[in-house]
Design brief:
With 127 residues, the protein is α+β, with helices and mostly antiparallel strands. A hairpin with a 5-residue loop joins strand 4 and strand 5.
Length: 127
């Protein structure tokens, strides 16, 4: 495991924790060949959901930690475009956050790429 992982975090947001975990594992499987450091970042058992998660306090967020890169971004875009009802949250190491749905991914296929490529540094929230 990479306990001191400092890369990007991609979270799958869903009110059904089992579905969120299943989809996060599917996304991890798609990313594994492109980013060998990618790993699941599961919520603490019985831990409360964050209030800023989509769907309010009942939503479960299952994350992936990765180092990112253009091929990884392309895989995320492809995966997300297959599930238009899905919402993911992408967080850069500088703390900036992007919320995007599968529908938005189809409409703007470069949104995540631009977000991850942006140096940011100001911690602003997009999306």
């Amino acid at each position: 495991m990479h306990d001191n992982h400092t890369g990007y975090r991609i979270s799958v947001v869903d009110e059904d924790p089992l579905r969120a975990r299943k989809e996060a594992r599917e996304l991890l499987a798609a990313l594994a060949a492109a980013d060998s450091t990618a790993r699941l970042d599961l919520p603490q058992p019985g831990g409360p959901a964050r209030v800023d998660d989509k769907g309010g306090p009942s939503a479960e967020t299952v994350g992936l930690l990765l180092s990112a890169g253009s091929f990884v971004v392309a895989l995320v875009q492809t995966w997300l475009a297959r599930v238009p009802q899905r919402t993911i949250v992408v967080q850069r190491p500088d703390g900036a956050v992007l919320h995007i749905t599968g529908k938005e991914a189809r409409e703007d296929d470069t949104l995540i790429e631009r977000f991850l490529a942006d140096d940011g540094g100001d911690g602003t929230t997009a999306g």
